[in-house]
Structures are given as C-alpha cells and as structure tokens.
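Operator note (shift B, R.M.): manual run for EFMT2 methyltransferase requested after the automated queue skipped it. Running by hand, logging everything below so the morning shift can see what happened. Input copied straight from the record, untouched. If output looks odd, do not overwrite the archive copy; leave it for review.
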Amino acid sequence: LSSPFFPPNPSWDAAYERELQTFQDIGDTGEIWFGEESMVRIIRWLEKHKVPLDSSVLDIGTGNGVLLVELAKSGYMDLTGIDYSPSAIQLSEKVREKEGMSHIKLKVEDFLAPSAELSGFDICIDKGTFDAISLDPSDAVGKRKLYVASLCRVLKPEGFFLITSCNWTKEELLNEFREGFEILEELPTPKFCFGGRIGNSVTALVFQRK
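Run finished. Output pasted below as returned.
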C-alpha cells in the first residue's frame, strides 16, 4: 500500500502507520506499488532518453519513497516526493535516512490543491495515485479534472509525465489527459491471458506537456 496519497481516507493513513511501525521494528519498507519492475521500467525510460541527471523530478504519491531512492541510486539529484498521508511521509523519511539520501525532499501535500512552491518540475511520476483519485466515491470526475489542472501547474511546458495505472486503459488515459498533454510512448507492461484474449493488467504511458 505504498503509493497513493488520496483519497483522504483514514485507511490509507492506517496502512502507512502499520508500515511505519513494521519499518521501525524490522527495517522492512513495505509494499512496492506495482512491484519492482515498475520502477525499473521508469528508470530505463529516463536513461534511454538521456534525461539529464539534474532534472527536477516529482513523485506524486510517493508512499514509502522507494522509487525516489532508486532514482537517487541511478544518479538523479533533484528529487521531491509528496504524499497526502503524513504517515507515508514519515515512513519515506525513515527510508531516506536508512539509505543515506538526505538530498531527497519530502512533503505532505494534497496534489489537488498544491502549494505555490510545488512548481517548475521537469518530470512528474505517478504510480497508482491517479488510480486512487479515480476511485474516490465523492466526485471522482471533478477530482480527476483537478488532478490534470494541478499537473499542468507543477510540470514545465515540454516536461514529461510518466503514469502507471491498473484502472485505466491507454485509450482512457489519452482521453483523461487530452487537455494540455500529448502521448509520447506506451511502455511495455506484463500481459495476461483470459478466455483466449490477451490484455494488459497494467498500463504505463509517457506524456509530454504541450
């Protein structure tokens, strides 16, 4: 349960509190949202496209912060993680300390109402946070629109947005992000077979802000 910061649901915070306690007890960082291969896929794309190591990166719904640690190990220096859950940020701070990555910036933020200083990023990454917002029973459509508006505010023009989703197909995501974004690439994800039909359980796309 280590990625989404939304919806403002006590169960998210309770889950992160449990992971925080587990980390303090035995040093286990908890779940990796979408698994380790999802992080590898993101880092490989950045390396393949020679995205400069001094690019500013925002991890939206950072959870336990493990993706940021892996980005730091790959040489990325300007890293920020935000999460709606204070317990998630506490956990990611502990992980950051354990890994000796003091330069990773971590903040409690509601991405649907971001603070003024949250702006000017070259890259934004989302692994499951848009999914969580989409499941919010109170005005999910409106909140998805707020998400896109926030993304336009925090991401520089021509900046990259990498999204991993298990709720949305490629076509649906293209529709959700049609205002202000263009698709650059669909990243390969694991496929499943059911009833003779092959499909993807996870969708991973790279957009560029217009």
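Quick read of the result: The first strand starts at residue 56 and ends at 60. The beta strands are 56-60, 78-83, 105-108, 121-127, 155-165, 181-187, 191-194, 197-200, 203-209.
Leaving this for review. - R.M.
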